[in-house]
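#help-structures
NK: newbie question, is this the right format to request a structure? protein is Fumarylacetoacetate hydrolase family protein
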Amino acid sequence: MTARWLPFPEFPAPIKHDFHNFGKTPDELGDAWAEGRVHLSLEVQVNGQWFGHPHGREMAFGFDDLIAHAARTRDLVAGTIIGSGTVSNTDYASVGSSCISERRAIEMIAGGKPETPFLHFGDRVRMAALGRDGSPFGNIDQRVIAAI
């Protein structure tokens, strides 16, 4: 399967990925799929500490909108993977974030400077979209390591 970076059609970047654990069709999500959005909370931890649990229902644009927009300027062949970007909510103060850059930007607006550090070698990030029966996508559990 090939994933393409869609925002810049003049720079297609074929990257080989194995999405079998994470890719789901809307029918596989059942009640967690509504209005073109995944209606689940995304639990995010950094080094075992809570970082956020934003909910997918607040996406500004549903996947139907994202696909229609992308299809205006490029062919979307079978197997094309569409990503929505980070999960964020208007009530970020209580639900936290799923993106360090977003959190740092919020901190700069609120206090004039960022407080959340960027990740360092050895840091661990865990993400899981939580449904009734656990995560339909599986968990992302990654440690930051130096390139070989």
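mod (FA): yep, format's fine, and the tokens are attached above. The radius of gyration is 17 Å.
NK: thank you!
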